[in-house]
Amino acid sequence: MEYKTLLSLFLWTGSLLGLSFFSSCHTDPIVVSVPGGGSYPNVNPGSGEECEDGTISFQYEVLPLLVSSCATSGCHDAASHKDGVILDSYENIMEEVKPNKPPSKSKLYQVLVRSGRERMPPPPADPFTQEQIDLIATWIEQGALNTTCSPACDANNHSFQADILPIIQQSCVGCHSGSQASGSVWLETYNDIYPYAINGKLLGTVKHQAGYSAMPPGVQLNDCRIAQIENWINNGAPND
């Protein structure tokens, strides 16, 4: 059977299975209240407020990574609260962070750099990459603020390797990788991602459209990241 026929059969079968592909990784809605009372404004992702050079955005870089990789069912979502730890909001995450101190003093950082079953996420999930660990460390060094600015982004830049894959690695792979991928959906490689790009499910979930399970759960990519994904798909979803 030719490849195109197999692909068509796969996509047709996927449509019969509905939208449950992306439905197994859940969190409660994001809360942005801060310890000691008060709250930070929930900035509209399309507001255009761009981070200063080098500043880490909690809302659009740290939070999606922790929600995708840690605040999952059976681990550190509100329902499971494994070991009493919940990592689904700024307030809860700050229980595991000591701002304005070396990252090594924060429990959140400590578990990321451990090995074996002591690390987070625990096996069989993939560990954080060094780049992701460095992102958390830099955010802590900057004071672990609830920054809501948008990282620099150009919607016209939508290379799979340079732009799309890093977005998915940051915000999706925590749920959709390893031997226990959520919903039996793997988004680790181009070959994993491509079918969901061309059948509309990837874009529907990241746009949080009606009828699709929102991804990342509880927090949405900013408008520019979504536009990058949409432009890449409209360009044929190449492995460029």
Would you write up a description of this structure?
This protein is an all-alpha fold and 240 residues long. The chain has two domains: 17-26 and 155-234, no CATH class; 58-141, no CATH class. Helix content is 37%, strand content 0%. The protein contains nine helices and no strands. The chain has helices spanning 3-16, 58-69, 90-93, 107-113, 130-141, 160-171, 190-198, 201-206, 223-234. The radius of gyration is 18 Å and the shape is globular. Residues 1-48 have low confidence and may be disordered.
Give the secondary structure arrangement, pairings included.
Layout: H1 3-16, H2 58-69, H3 90-93, H4 107-113, H5 130-141, H6 160-171, H7 190-198, H8 201-206, H9 223-234
Helix pairs in contact: 2-5, 6-9
